[in-house]
Batch of 2 targets.
Target 1
Amino acid sequence: MHLKYESQLREPLVYGDKTYKQVTEDIVRPIEAKPTRLWYVGFYIAAALLMFGVYSVYREVTYGIGQWNLNKTVGWGWDITNFVWWVGIGHAGTLISAILLLFRQGWRTGVNRAAEAMTIFAVMCAGQFPIFHMGRVWMAFFVLPYPNSRGPLWVNFNSPLLWDVFAISTYFTVSLLFWYSGLIPDFATVRDRAFTKLRKHLYGIASFGWTGSTKHWQRHESLSLVLAGLSTPLVLSVHTIVSFDFATSVIPGWHTTIFPPYFVAGAIFSGFAMVQTLMVIVRKVFGMQDYITMGHIEAMNKVIVLTGSIVGIAYLTELFMGWYSQNKYEGYTFWYSRAYLFSPYGWSYWGMMACNVLSPQIFWFRKMRRNLFVTFFMSIIVNIGMWFERFVIIVTSLYRDYLPSSWSVYYSPTIWEMGFYAGTFGLFFTCFFLFAKYFPVIAIAEIKYVLKTTGEGYKNKMGVIEEQKLEEFVHEYAHH
Amino acid sequence: MAKKKFVVGCFDDEAVLFPAVKKVRTAGYKIHDVYTPFAVHGLDHAMGLRETSLHTAGFIYGITGTTTALSCISWIFTKDWPLNIGGKPHFALPAWIPIMFELTVLFAAVGMVLTFCYLCQLAPFVKKHHFHPRATDDLFVMVIECTDKTNVDDLRSFLANNGAVETDFQIAEDGWWLGRYDRDEMPFEHKQIVAA
């Protein structure tokens, strides 16, 4: 027997003195119970939003990009803003499941499953925008490099837009595989205790015939670790490449070398905020307070205040460089189009500053980090702020170009542009509601794995060890 | 496909399981497998399983991805269709690093997951014999393969003495077949193969 000692000072990851059986029962309960009325209400609202989105997209596909208010200088508007926003949100899941796994952060086990699901749905939403922005969406496969009858005319491998195609599709695929490989053992748990025929059949298919063999677990562990190792640079590369879409251009406000780290920090920031929004609801609705504890919420709020401050430093650095470079175009973009409150889009810059930089500072206080209401409210504020960030970057750099005669047009979206955005919310929440009902929202096997070292019942026993004399302790645990 | 005889011992605590595995092995029994609800660290070593080489396979898939990206892009941009992009070099290696990286990750991840599924024989509609339904819930199920010389009753009491909360004797198929979990039939079992 090897010694497993965990300090009592660190709070337990699982509350209540639970057995393995109870863990299964607690997590599988929502799957086996009938959905609540609240679930139906939420699901139908989400589905209605999705339908509206589908109609908005139908308008755009049928009548063309003119259904949106994009104009001669603002060629990217809400669509690319929303794309970057969703991709950013999609970063938290892999960050939690991969980077925190490599850093051995035990608390990730409570939230990784739902966060990964959120990642996948967010990336699905993100992908819609560039695809439908193409206009002739039925030609979307032209972005893939395949031998064709047009020459063959290949795609431009030197273009950041193509890097994005590869980055996002790889990210989606790898996240999906990572998520699903973790789900297989948990589906087997649901299958083996299913009491209806249909459930046994469907979870039987989904669990791929998993038995829990030691050799399979050994391979599973190896697979998870390598996928985590691969996903870590991947998640950093994806938003880096998204930032290249802007940074490799020569537009003032985009042409910035700090974009990659600044975008990645912003992505983690908004992703964690979305995880908080969902977790606060999930733990309440499904009664998962023992697994998604205040400790989890607090840890994520710490990440939010850290990344929010990194983003804040990036904003200030940009402003400084706008002046220090003595480039009048840069100076105009940063100090007039953005930072001057009374310029046409000044309101969006200061909205961004207030939401992203000032308000998260509240999380320096422990009481605030552990307050559910503040957490939920701030998670919404942060995501509004991060949406403004992308809007500021895109629109304030474009609406006043080098030709002052085209400055007169003030870009604001049409109802179909907004409908498309609303529709992705519908897609996201429709998927999330289905996930929450039919999938184990917490990784059952992983919770069982940490239960004996970080569960409350186990922690309480540590008190006895801590009071032991050193000689007794050595006598009991030393190998002879 | 063949049916074999197994003795099954169920444990409810991994702390009891480890010494039991050791004793069963020293007693000379052949452990077919131990089914656990989660990855029990060190159990593979206790059972004497060798390390998996899955990560090595992942590395090979990864470099295959890198090579695929580099060779395809360089062939396309220097030989097949040397597109003049602002007079820049056709062989523009720095600009290809993002795609080379992405394909490395993609190939490694997809390849590893497929290899994992192949090695563990996992796929939709695959069905296997499960020695105990609670092996995915809260029991650690040790399965010992019987030989002609095995005394089943002795072995069962040996397991019980070493902390098994439940023991059982089963005749089971150790491979996989296509089937549904809500039905019990094995499709090939009833078939009579008649030699012509």
Note: The radius of gyration of chain B is 25 Å.
Target 2
Amino acid sequence: MALDRKIAYINLSTGKIETKPIPMEIRKKFLGGRGLDAYLLYNHAPQGCDPLGPDNPLMISGGILTATCASATARTHIMAKSPLTGLLGSANMGGFFAPEMAWAGFHHLVITGKAKSPVYIWIHNGRIEIRDAAYLWGKSTTETQWAIREELGDEDIKSAVIGQAGEKLVRYANVMTGIKNAAGRTGMGAVMGSKNLKAVAVRGTMDIKIAHPIDALEYNKRFIEGITSAKVSGTQGSLGTPFIWGATNSWGGLRTRNFQYNQMEYADDIEPERLDEIATETIGPHHMTGCFGCQVHCRAQYKIPSGPYAGKYDEGPEYTSLGAFGSEPDCRKAETVLTGNHLVNQYGVDNLEIGSMIAWAMELYELGIITSKETDGLDLRFGNDEALLEMVHRICLRKGWLGDVLADGGIPASEKIGKNSFEYLVQVKGMSNLHSDERGTPGLALNIATASRGSDHLRSRPAIDLYHLPEKIMRKIYSNPVPYDGPLSSEHTDYEGKPWQVFWHQNCFMAVDCLGICKYHTVFLGATLPNFEDWPKVIYYNTGLEFTPVELWEISERCNNLERLFNLREGLTRNDLKKGDMLNHRYFDEPTKRGAPDVVGLTIDRQKFKKMVDEFYNHCGWDKQGVPTSATMDRLGLNLEPSHLL
Amino acid sequence: MANDSEKLSSAESLRKTRTFGKVRCHNPSCMERMEPSPGAAHIKCATCGMEYRIYWVRPDLPRIRGPVWEVNRKIAAEALSRKLSTSKSKSQVKEGVKDGVR
């Protein structure tokens, strides 16, 4: 059954491999996936360890529901101390890797040490080998996966790999699987690179016994009906995540020209509908595909229609590639977006971070803070498509002074560039913001300021705040599974009630990441999608474990607090612009200039923002400095951590 | 209880509130529901005047592709001008900020 999947400890320095069952006591407290990884990180990472040193443990995991009869259990979670932020490193990818790893007998890997030369890990039906990867070093992410399949003679092998960006220790390098599935935040690919670990390959045929198979299938049918009938799923399945980029741009919530504007006007050539036309022209009408066990199919397939990479196949682009190669650098050609997307997938680098780095450099260039001397003659003005794509190559290969500097991430780069470059760097905890502009949405601003892995939309974003839902519906969602009768507002420009919404989503998204399912199957973009009341049934039918919705909520709180404890241990303080829950001054000082009439002219109010953070901390059970109180630690059973039970 | 399969969850009970065939105005404090005629390419919000381009995901599922840019730009510029002339925070807008050049 799902609960008999094991954990493996792999030391690349010594070659020692040890496997263990996962105790039920730990399962009941942390479930699996991101939650259990947080436990492992807190227990195995020495305080202050070098993120690119051998002591930094790298966790790779599936959720407690991975590869069961539940829907969309495709997600692979990867965690370590981040080389980008020096705090929590955590990234999540779709595809088929985690289910295959579960069929091979494992839910969690803990990889420590550093191999003397490039290696990859081969996991096959309970057996684990460390194999030579010298011949793989220097290959792209796709080439690497096919080379492993060829070497081992099995086309069904799934691999989590790094590309050249991970090898070169670009501090926001991805771990990738398939064509474009990316564990793409906080530099987990650089951690793999620092260990000389090119790939983890898995293949399994070990059955997973379902506790109540008929009930599980019956309930999943009901679950699928709820997912596929949602309007948001229909749109996702037609246009993918670019539809969110389009909607965000429509009302004026899109970060444009680094942070100078909140809307990219006349962007018709890169609107999702135009990309859909290109995918239809180059692949055919049925160009949408999906991850393991998912019915939404939000991933487009395409070929680059023109330019030096014409005819190259790829998948996506996602919202973030439209931001990275469209609105942020103010480039308006579909060819540029599709080519940039292809390059980051092949190099294995975070499209969001690299797009933000280049857009920041473009603003610095136009301001004269960097010149053609630093760019080695490259004209780095906004709107220069060729310069944008050239910078992708330079960063991923660490070529030239600026490429090498930007590869280290924003804060170290600002220290090397000097002058007042840091003022223009739009980041939280050292990680760049999503290509969205939260000046018109205080709830979303609170989300990015307080998210555990740095500025991030997938940790606690109350995206449905933008839907202007009637209060009755808001109450129904946000008063479950624990009662809440405080303020709630349907106005997304309000500050009232937003801390509770962010707190609620923080717990909701943690639960999703522990289960191993996709966030498009919960209250992220659709208000009517499953949440705490629905999951206990899925868990029970598939694993036999019984939880109430409130118990799941408490598990999520426990895991979120463990991530918080890790960050505090590594130096997080509330108002630190580089390591705290604080926004760049531009949120407070520079009003928005574009968008819908109720969005222009807005900033985040400093005092109201501070009050929101206070309230959010209070909901979390943290003191005014954002430290969990002893009562919270007692309530969640965290006062004995690190407990070293696993 | 975990295995109480008959009871509707909040998410399931909310599904009857879905409004197929309608879109909501993207002006955040307006958010008026609008029902485009089948196959229509444009729609204007009767409440706030914003105009949008419509894309049909399916024959029963319209979505706003984006604003009609000229109308959007004009309304935004008027709103910004109005706000800046009445706001105490007028000084917050740094002098000399133009398209991409500081």
Note: The longest helix of chain B spans residues 69-86.
